[in-house]
């Protein structure tokens, strides 16, 4: 799909990987709707873009997302591209000091990372299906998983489960949409230089970097954004999960 004058809805676009995706898509000529619960961040990113639209919304709230997509369609006409980067990281063992882990904490992470992404997808795809096909395509979805979906470490049960669930969404939905011109793919990034990792102590960052084979550094957000653009542009890529991690495989500790 050619990005010029296409409408992209980026959930989690106020910071980190999502913000870089917004900037990159706008640079390629897309109209970008920035969706995030961080209202101040959303407005800052949208105002920095040539054709940006700020959409403050909670991805876990059905009505909020439906209203958000309605507004995008009212302002920009439709949705062609949906990129989902919104998510949270939390740690918690299933049993700690002899006591069961927090179910509320587990539920919160899965609800935001997995259910929230599905919530945005279902409304965005409904809008895509109303588009006239261009070279057979009506829309593209790109979701953000994680290397933790494959090599979750102790304490990452909720995060790993939520990110593995995103990979599991792709094939059944791609099959459901077969013949309708909408593709769905997933990126599983490794360790990236984002505000989340920037908050770690330098010793921890150095330890993480030492585990990355080649290149031995944290990923750059623009490298993630470039892959998003490549996925959108490759009409034959569907129901795939691409690891973007410099060959890192996290240890069991």
Evaluate the radius of gyration.
Answer: 18 Å
Series of secondary-structure elements, N-terminal to C-terminal: EHEHEHEEEHEHEHHHE
| Average pLDDT rating | 95
How many distinct beta strands?
Answer: 9
What is the CATH superfamily?
A: NAD(P)-binding Rossmann-like Domain
User: What is the helix content?
Assistant: 40-55%
Sheet-strand content, in percent, reads 15-25%
Instruction: Detail the poorly predicted runs.
Output: none
Task: Please give the largest β-sheet.
Answer: 7 strands, parallel
CATH class bucket: Alpha Beta
CATH architecture: 3-Layer(aba) Sandwich
Basic shape? globular
Provide the domain count.
1
In the CATH hierarchy, the third-tier topology is known as Rossmann fold
Q: How many helical stretches?
A: 8
Secondary-structure-based class equals alpha/beta
